[in-house]
Amino acid sequence: KKKFFGLIPARGGSKGIPKKNIIDLNGKPLIHYTIEAAIKSKNLDDFIVSSDDRKILEISERLNIKTHLRNKTLSKDQSPMIDVMLNIVDEYELILKGYEFLVLLQPTCPLRTAKDIDNAISFFDKSGADTLISCYKVEDAHPARMYTIKNKFLNPINKDQANLNRQDLTEVFHRNGAVYIFKISNIKNKIQFGKKLFPFIMEEERSLNIDNVYDLKLARLIMNKK
Fold first, then answer.
1. Cα distance between residue 65 and residue 82, in whole Å
2. Residues of the chain below pLDDT 50
3. Which stretches of the chain are assigned E, i.e. beta strand?
């Protein structure tokens, strides 16, 4: 049986929403929803929360979750995720012995479920790919409807499809940050995305990735609607 180890990377800093990963979302810290989904997952063999923030680690430890105190140099806005993953792989080499894959679960995706995690792992296991990226189908925000501004005038990004009807547009998918799966052997070689990228397609509603206050309000509306 292939083994999958989960990583929830949750740094303390955030520009859009201060202390975003522990902000209250319907009575729970934001990160709680990702931890809860990881706990309920049947295909995830184990997981850890990595953070530079003591409060985030305390919340995780109260739920009896493995935690990792991340170095501040790996917790900046520009810190590459591959370095964060490599740090975990290096420091927990003995724990990760026997594991082939690292499942990255961003705490800013509270609507992603345990079933999403399990389905992503199941589909990936049969895919023959070396990387999985969760995504959703783009509708209104299709690149054919987007423009740049040059010399004060609009220029379509995709000139070939700018005037096509919606049903005639090429299908496009946007990664949502909910689930990534990487080969640990690739991470050790500082390769984040492999050559074969497998898409795990999710509903757009569950694909919400909280980046700003608007996203937070939207998450509350969706949760209250259920």
1. 22
2. none
3. 4-9, 24-25, 28-29, 46-51, 66-69, 101-104, 131-137, 147-150, 153-156, 173-183, 197-201
